[in-house]
Request: fold
Amino acid sequence: MSRNDRSSGGKNSGRQGGGTRKKSHARGNAPVKPKMEKSPLSNSEGIRLNKYIANSGICSRRDADMYIAAGNVTVNGKSVTEMGYKVKLEDDVRFDGRRINPEKPQYILLNKPAGFFVTGNPEKGGKTVMELVSKVTDARVSPVGKLDNQAKGLLLFTNDGTLAKKLAKPKNGIRQIYHVTLSKALSKEDLESIEKGVFLEGSKVIVTSISFIDDKPHTEVGIELYSIKEHIVTRIFKSMGYDVESLDRVVFGGLTKKDLSRGRTRNLTEQEVINLGMH
Reply:
């Protein structure tokens, strides 16, 4: 398995000047800041229920008032027919029994650097991946799956609860490829044993493929699998007597690190979202 996911750093183009001449910002050369996606519920007091429904794409505000009066809407399990009722983003708002979301669905891919926590309470002074994602959106997106603090690579964030729940189901699984660096060289015999599947806690973990990285020492391997169990790659090698020194997720579903440098984010294309939904 060869690595083809490296991103090449480019140099800024522009007129070259002598001495300390500063770069001109004329003719569109001004630095472009990433567009911040705004949340429709930035007001801490909440927004009117009819606007919440309209923002979700169900209908217009005027029609929403009719549906509210007819008892089609519940908030936190209780029917609400009051005009002007206000709700917050954390409220469970349902229209005809289906939960709705007033925020535009967002799908953000991060190439996570090492040293960032994904979930839980980080140590004092520790950094979280949300510090990186909050630079491009203030919507309440959450990571799909986990990566350890020192792990690197692809991590998906979304506020689409339906897709997130689907991808998180163990029975579905999703294709993942990791570039792993081990504390010692992996023997050919152990590589073949892992490829046949490893038993962890009484159940067999299916490994789609595993191979040495081209032109690299046998401490570096690529492993492909569909399991989303926590710490699964580290646990596989640990069971064979190997410690993982570096872990980099280079493929997640059909998503790759192409043109996405470490610590940067990008929005998924419409087709990529469709493809993920088919898993």
